[in-house]
Design a protein that fits this description.
The chain is built from 15 helices and six strands. By secondary structure, the protein is mainly alpha-helical. Strand 5 (145-150) and strand 6 form a beta hairpin.
């Protein structure tokens, strides 16, 4: 198995054999153009079963992986795997230009939520083929925010959660290389390869992470159709789950009253130094969440919710996600803690 720990990308490119690169090229080209991963059967017919199995064994899960869709085994490459294909250097360049564009747009407008294919194509001078390439690179690298839509021709993506971390500079290829080798190489924690898909990979329970990913997409979708109340309810539920998960994963049981009060939960998390909790307070958005969860009580009439309150709730989730995901001191959860979190959060 290729050791990606501490290796430079150019070194890894030289270690790949011509046959391995041909296999990676075939897998990536199929996904790029067909929008789905190629079947293992098709690869076996093209290269031979023994060659494909040897590629799996020699390159490892940081570069090439097996997946299953509708009962059929398919082969996929990771973003690191894409950078090792014949289109690797071109992919680096176009993604670096895109990140520079997003960074600049976000600096000009910190409230920026979305960018679309039309504006990106115009700004970067992309052909239809290179726009399709960029769309798939963004998907695979996870440099996109929630609520993104990847159509066959047009696409819209949310601004990356870690947009504030994109460094200033004329060329971001070094940043891309450092990012991929740090987070996808074997020098990263062993659990990285088994992370749940989506932006909530840092949540200890995979089922909860998947549910939060769905809720986050829905929260941003309903914001786009001006469903402010639904947006705040979804964001409040996400924050509640994140704080409970973080507390329980670190072995801190919150006060009993905090289980039904997001404000008290945030206070308990702040007291335990949970990343992201310090940015929350019993603000209007959190009070709205509590009121919205008790709409039938006479003392809490069904309140109106504004666009600004929904926006505040979305921003609160973004900040928590960013800080929790980039925290250096979050320990890995053991199996018993995972069970506790799963039981507590349903």
């Amino acid at each position: 198995m290729i050791d990606t720990s501490g290796a430079e990308l150019e070194t890894l490119r030289h270690r790949i054999t011509e046959e391995q690169r041909a296999i990676l090229n075939k897998i990536w080209g199929h996904f790029r153009d067909e929008n789905q991963w190629i079947s293992r059967r098709a690869l076996d017919e093209r290269f031979g079963r023994s060659a494909i199995q040897a590629c799996y064994d020699q390159l490892g899960g940081n570069i090439i992986r097996a997946t299953e869709e509708e009962g059929e085994e398919r082969c996929q490459v990771t973003f690191l795997g894409v950078l090792l294909t014949g289109q690797g250097e071109e992919s680096e360049q176009i993604l670096a230009r895109y990140l520079e564009y997003v960074r600049g747009q976000y600096k000009s407008d910190p409230g920026l939520e979305w960018v679309g294919s039309h504006e990106v194509e115009a700004a970067l001078g992309l052909t239809a083929a290179r726009s399709r390439l960029l769309r798939q690179l963004i998907r695979l690298s996870h440099w996109w925010g929630g609520g993104s839509g990847f159509g066959s021709r047009e696409w819209t993506v949310g601004v990356p959660v870690d947009v504030d971390d994109i460094p200033a500079g004329a060329d971001l290829r070094a940043y891309i290389r450092e990012h991929v080798l740090t987070h996808l190489g074997t020098g990263a924690p062993a659990s990285v390869a088994q992370r749940p898909p989506g932006e909530f990979w840092f949540v200890s329970n995979p089922d909860l992470a998947r549910q939060l990913t769905t809720d986050w997409l829905e929260a941003q979708d309903v914001f786009q159709v001006r469903a402010w109340r639904s947006c705040v309810v979804l964001c409040g539920g996400i924050l509640e789950a994140l704080l409970l998960d973080a507390l329980l994963r670190r072995g801190h049981a919150p006060p009993e009253s905090a289980w039904s009060d997001l404000g008290e939960l945030a206070e308990a998390a702040r007291g335990r130094g949970i990343p992201g909790a310090e940015t929350l307070s019993m603000s209007q958005s959190l009070r709205r969440f509590q009121d919205l969860m008790r709409p039938g009580l006479p003392a809490h009439p069904r309140p109106e919710v504004t666009k600004a309150e929904a926006q505040t709730a979305l921003n609160a989730v973004r900040v928590c996600m960013r800080l929790m995901a980039t925290s250096k001191d979050a320990p890995e959860a053991d199996e018993s803690t995972r069970r506790d979190v799963s039981s507590a959060l349903g």
